[in-house]
Amino acid sequence: MSVEKVREYLKQFGADSRVLELAESSATVELAAHALHCEPCRIAKTLAFQLGDRVILIVAAGDARIDNAKYKAHFGGKAKMIGGGETETLTGHAPGGVCPFAVKEGVSVCLDVSLKRFDTVFPACGSANSAIEVTLPELEKFSASADWVDVCKEWRNAPSV
After folding, report:
1. Rounded to a whole number, what is the distance in angstroms from the first to the last CA of the chain?
2. 138 with 146: CB under 8 angstroms?
3. What is the DSSP letter of 82?
4. pLDDT (tens digit, 9 = 90+) per residue, 44-58?
5. Contact present, 151 and 70 (Cβ < 8 Å)
6. Residue 19 φ/ψ, nearest 5 degrees
7. Which stretches does DSSP call E strand in the chain?
8. In what order do the strands lie in the sheet with 43-51?
């Protein structure tokens, strides 16, 4: 089970006991926000893309959407989301539980600036009913992120919570 892999991975940071396994699904932003009793924008959704032979995970705020022009300008190619059937093979996590922790070797993790308006956010932890509340410095460290990127739209006019 992927949540166990994530919990084991988070042990190195002393954060394994903070993984929440929820009684209800957290597979979408809306479901996660309901299960965690927080605003949807604070859900740190992880979006999986393939660019040639590269796999890129972008962690963004729940109310942000990928801006294709910004993505192309930053990464040098068109944003192509990985299909559900390939997600687990390429990232190490199944759809609904994709997260920036304990990913397959060679997968790049980027954090979108849409997250920077929050003190803490809730990324998944490898299953469709798990999450962890982390600060942004923790998210950077735990995800071994490659970079902060600005590749999303529609969140800038939303209030920070």
Report:
1. 33
2. no
3. P
4. 999 999 999 999 999
5. yes
6. -65, 130
7. 20-21, 43-51, 54-61, 65-66, 108-112, 120-123, 130-131, 134-135, 147-149, 152-153
8. 134-135, 120-123, 43-51, 54-61, 108-112, 147-149
DSSP symbol at 83: P
Q: What is the mean pLDDT of residues 139-161?
A: 86
Q: What's the rounded Cα separation, in Å, for the pair 46 and 48?
A: 7
What are the angstrom distances between the C-alpha of 127 and each of 5, 19, 77, 98?
10, 11, 29, 7
Q: How confident is the model at residue 159 (pLDDT cuts 50, 70, 90)?
A: low
Other residues' Cβ atoms within 10 Å of the Cβ of residue 124: 29
